[in-house]
Amino acid sequence: MSWWLVKQEPESYAFAQFLQEKKTLWTGVRNYQARTNLRAMKVGDNVFYYHSGEGKEIVGLAKVTRAAYPDPTAEEGDWVAVELQAVKALAHPVTLVAIKKTKALQDLVLVRNSRLSVQPVTLEESQLLLKMAT
DNA sequence: GCCAACGTTGGC
DNA sequence: GCCAACGTTGGC
């Protein structure tokens, strides 16, 4: 069971909307590193949902309900999509500021490479993030 | 609004 | 294959 983090601008697709729609296809990823991560996702894996731009905080949890398959929105190239199901909003969103203040989270990809849109999260990091969100 | 970091493109 | 130039992203 792995943990991931996906990044999205709330103007494009806020977590609240995702919660209403329950499931969404995670399409449009056009970055090789992110693609590698999408391909490594397994059904049942857990996903943190991060709002970049307005917010800059982890706002919710989701899980993978369909593993990587060819991205239907890709007109050319070998890209993949997954299906995600919204699980719940975090009681206390974990802000980027709080993450940066936490020593044990300095290796989080969000800190090291904030531009990567699909990121792995270690088990230790995920447990700490969940604790901070309680 | 600025700029640093990153990824991609294209000339050599 | 290298690297300069450019475009994009996202934090500040």
Gist?
The chain has 134 residues and is α+β, with helices and mostly antiparallel strands. The protein contains six helices and six strands; from the N terminus they run E-H-H-E-H-E-E-E-H-H-E-H.
Helices and strands, with pairings:
Elements: E1 3-8, H1 10-13, H2 15-21, E2 23-26, H3 32-40, E3 46-51, E4 57-70, E5 80-95, H4 96-101, H5 109-112, E6 118-121, H6 123-133
Parallel strand pairs: 1-3
Antiparallel strand pairs: 1-6, 2-5, 3-4, 4-5
The protein binds a DNA duplex (12 and 12 nucleotides) through residues 7, 9, 31-33, 52-53, 56, 96, 113-117.
Feature tags:
alpha+beta, single chain, globular, DNA-binding, 6-stranded mixed beta sheet
What topology, given as strand order, has the largest sheet?
2-5-4-3-1-6
Q: What is the terminal-to-terminal distance?
A: 21 Å
For the biggest sheet, the summary is: 6 strands, mixed
- Strand segment tally: 6
Uncertain spans: none
Radius of gyration, in Å, reads 14 Å
Shape: globular
Number of continuous helical runs: 6
Average pLDDT value? 95
Estimate the helix proportion, in percent: 25-40%
Strand content: 35-45%
Helix and strand content put the structural class at alpha+beta
Element-by-element helix/strand order: EHHEHEEEHHEH
